[in-house]
Amino acid sequence: MASEGSTYGDIHRYEPPRESTAAAVGIVLLTVIQIVLVGLFTYGMLIGWASGIGTSLTVRLIEANMFLGGVLTAIFLDLAFIMLLYRKEFLPDVMIVKKRRRKWEDLYIRQEDVEGETLADEEQLVETIKRAVYPYYKK
Q1: Roughly what angle, to the nearest 10 degrees, separates helices 58-90 and 21-47?
Q2: 133 vs 20, 64, 116, 119, 127, CA distance in Å?
């Protein structure tokens, strides 16, 4: 469904989402894995795997920190895959017409002001700086 107009805000292209059942099942399974990983990470933090409670060797502490870091990595990777599947399968692909801007429009109000203004004397320079710093400055 594409519109013929090219005015600002018109929908140029609209593709509805696929909404496949396989993606929905995949998202549910990844969510279950996410819950298990978050539970494992929380259990490890509460028991004190990373703090060395109950361990006398530094090697165990390093291994525990690496294990919890790996679990945290798996949590974020799993979340990334959930979001990727959701975006790809359940959100529509929409392209709208946007207003094209020239380079000078971001910096200046009018095209005539591209070259800037020259200041004749020092008094005018001080007044311009006061207005730039404090726009509600009263004379």
Answers
A1: 160
A2: 56, 54, 18, 17, 10
Who contacts 49 (Cβ-Cβ below 8 Å, separation ≥6)? Answer: 64, 67, 68
Q: What is the pLDDT of residue 52?
A: 59
Q: For 23-33, what is each residue's pLDDT tens digit?
A: 999 999 999 99
Please give the structure tokens belonging to residue 94: 């929409």
pTM over 0.70? The answer is no
Alpha-carbon torsion 117, 121, 125, 127, what sign? Answer: negative
Q: For residue 37, give both structure tokens.
A: 């990983």
